[in-house]
Structure formats: C-alpha cells, structure tokens
Amino acid sequence: MITLYTAATPNGHKISIALEELGLPYRLEVLDLQRGDQKRPEYLAICPNGRIPAIVDHEEDDFAVFESGAILVYLAEKTGRLMPSERKGRSRVLQWLMFQMGGIGPMMGQANVFYRYFPEKIQPAIDRYQGEVRRLFGVLDAHLAQHEYLAGDYSIADIANWAWVRTHRWSGVEIEPFVHLKRWRDAIRARPAVQRGIERPPSKIDLTRDGDEAARRFAEEARTLVEMGRPAPPPADAGARA
C-alpha cells in the first residue's frame, strides 16, 4: 500500500494518474494548501520542501519519496512499467520528464502567478511567461508531429507533461494552434486511468463549466498562497475541454 499526499494540482495529479495506470493500491491524503497542511512538522518529515506531492511506500519500510518527477521514476522502476529498462529508451523518457520539470511546469507556474494571481497586471511579465509557454508548446507540437507519444510508448513523460498542458487556459495560453499537441492531449484525456486520476482529488473549478467569474473568485482565494511565497494551484480542469 502507498499513501499519496496530494492536492488538486498538476503535480499532484501526475502521481494519482500514474498510480491508477499502474493499478497500485494507494490511500489518498489530501492536504489543504491554504491552511498550510504542507508546512506541518509531520509532513515536513516526509517532504522537507513542504510541497505536494509526496508518497510513503509502506511495502518498503515506509520509504518516503518527494518531488513529483522522482516519484514517477520510483513508481516506474518499482513496477517495471511506464519507462523502459534499456538505457536509451529510459533516457528518452527521462529527457522529456526533465523537459516538464525544468520547463513546462516552472514557466506555466509563473504565467499563472502573473496572469491570474497578482492583484496588479504586470504586462511585461505576463508576456514573458506566456510567450515561453507558447515556445515550449511549440517544441512539444513539433515532436508530436512525428511521434504518437513523447518517448516511444506511453510513459511517465506523457503523464508529467499532460498534467500541466491540460491547464493551459489557466495560464492564458490557447492550445488550438498546436494541432499535434491537441491530438495528444485529447488521446491521453480519453484513457480511463487518466480520468480516474484527475478526480483524485477533483478540482475545485472548471473554467469551461464555471466561467470567468468563478475563476476570478478562485484566484482571489488562492492569492494568499502567492503572498505567503507558496505556489498557488491552478484549477485542474483549466484547459482539459478547451
């Protein structure tokens, strides 16, 4: 059994999707980020960085793993699935996983902050981060024009990038110009395990369903996290149906 400490964010949903895809039994512990659950001493003993997600593998002497990319690699190696064992195939998966960890996630996160959460609109910052998101989307789109998935077969690299790409509207970036990226997004969204994973836990808001006014209220409530130096979560369905 694995305990997953998480919240309804792209990084959190990476792990619930992977656990569902792998069919591993797990227990969900949903942390209230606005209440500061992630800063409590008992959680910091599991995740020194005070962020979600983290897991504890009770089958391995309560072994704790934090950082979403490291968790994905751990789960893939534990099961022998979603990442090849041979050197070149494994490297391809890790390259695209690092692309998400070092590029897609940080740039979309900063776009979210300046586009959604800051009380004043600093247009040069918004333009800078949205522009970088579009550039990275272009990299994905060009690669996916020649490949069904990012690194051969469906893998943790696809899960990691998809969990962020699907929230594109929360960053203020449209996906329509990126036809191959859109094809890939929709194909992964149709997977039953992915559909289960993004409900563990469900998002608080869906832009398509709830509209801009609900998005504004959500952003105002989440702004306190930004002011306290914590990453504010995008609503998990911010772009899934765009």
From TrEMBL:
Keywords of this entry: Transferase
Record has Transferase as a keyword: yes
GO terms for MF: transferase activity
InterPro entries cross-referenced by the UniProt entry: Glutathione-S-Trfase_C-like, Glutathione-S-Trfase_C_sf, Glutathione_S-Trfase, Glutathione_S-Trfase_N, GST_C, Thioredoxin-like_sf
Superkingdom of this protein's organism: Bacteria
Residues annotated as domain GST N-terminal: 1-83
Domain GST C-terminal: 86-205
Coiled coil: none
Membership in a protein family: Belongs to the GST superfamily.
Name listed for the protein in its UniProt record: Glutathione S-transferase/GST-like protein
Organism annotation: Tibeticola sediminis
